[in-house]
Amino acid sequence: MNMKKSLLSGFLALALISSLLVSTNVSANNNAVSSSPLSYSLVTKGYDWGPGVYKIILDTGTSIQENSLTKDTFKVLAERSYPMINFQTLQTYDGSDSSSRAIEKAYLSDKNGNPISMSSGQYITIEMKVHPDLMTASPFMFDLQSFTNRYVDLQYTIIQQKSLQDQAGNVIDYLTTRPDTPHTMIEQGVEPFDLTGKFKHKDSTYGEIQLTYASYMPETSKKKPLIIWLHGAGEGGTDPRIALLGNKVTALADESIQKYFGDAAVLVPQTPTFWMNDGTGQYTKNGKSMYTKSLTALIKQYVKQHAADIDTDRIYIGGCSNGGFMTLNMLLANPDYFAAAYPSAEAYDDSLLTKQDIAKLKNIPIWFTAAGADQTVDTSKTSTATYKRLIAAGAKNVHYSYFDKVLDMSGVYSKGNGDNAPYEYNGHWSWIPVLNNNISKDFNGKPVKIKGKAVTLMEWLANQKK
């Protein structure tokens, strides 16, 4: 990012806000309407490409007439600040970017942002456009020093452009926010998860290892399967929210996936570095990970702590990229523990798998996913090669969904600039259709079936049992 350009955009944004604040204050004073303290919530949810702020819930402190509110009543300016580094000089500096957010609709709502049918109300919800390429909508930035996602410092300014009316007919012109306006962040989909999980393990080789984790446990008395997700390299750290939102992992607790399992517990472990760390801080060259024993211990302790809730014959493990590597690593370390696996864009070099390893894996139900456009992992040397060896070894329940590209399947996002073809994601991101459960075909292009019925990946996974 050009530092001068970034600073210039920041100064221009501040100038715009200042001028609008002055005009708004003058208007408010002229109408002699006293204002109640404003506050607002930024509402974020996970998308295929990561988290995005898509909604603002504005608490006006008064009762606004619905017929005075339009989509053009407000303008929204988003500014993000984050640390940057010049890799030539190793000097750090504050980076930033800003833009106006395109408003799609504005309406009266309850305090949770749900539309209301009443003619007046205290809360106004503003919905904004999001897009895979719209970086100012994201609360994350990719830190090139740690190669992980980090939260940015978000500053939103809600600028009132047109007057509103309260129930008494008074003009309301004071709803422009300031930097010190109280606000909160709501992360939809994260709420059902317990984010406090911490696990310490004394490893005989690597010393004390600390892992964090998020978990979800449905409130039902019956025993439930356990779905484990292992994140990619970019979601390492000590904040499990990043492991949930960096990819749309919150979907595992959604009804759209839960319905196949009849309710399932979800466990999302997080490494402070990356799963492929061989103990030296470098990517493994022999298939070993410093986290194998500690992750195994974490999973087994979690299962033991929830013995009354978890069906130990239905424990499923999967993950993406680094997490896909770790999925295979865990299967090899614990070949009789998991009922099935679902790695995507997995980075385990097939040349490191011995004949004995293949013999272990061939009896475990596995559904691989990858894309030919992957420029991060050479699929010909990882999932494709391993799948073919497993089939040749006589694997009866191993599947592989392989696409040319990773395309948007929602019908919402296109390439743009007049091209209505589906948006094309990074070819490495083959976990997108996994977390959307948009996978049903095997490597030969034919549907995967159970008892003659074509099934999706999640349907297949839910039917696996030790």
Automatic annotation (TrEMBL):
It comes from Paenibacillus silvae. This is Peptidase. The lineage of its organism: Bacteria, Bacillati, Bacillota, Bacilli, Bacillales. Residues 39-172 form the Esterase Ig-like N-terminal domain. Residues 1-28 form the signal peptide. It comes from the Bacteria. Keywords: Signal. Residues 299-350 form the Peptidase S9 prolyl oligopeptidase catalytic domain.
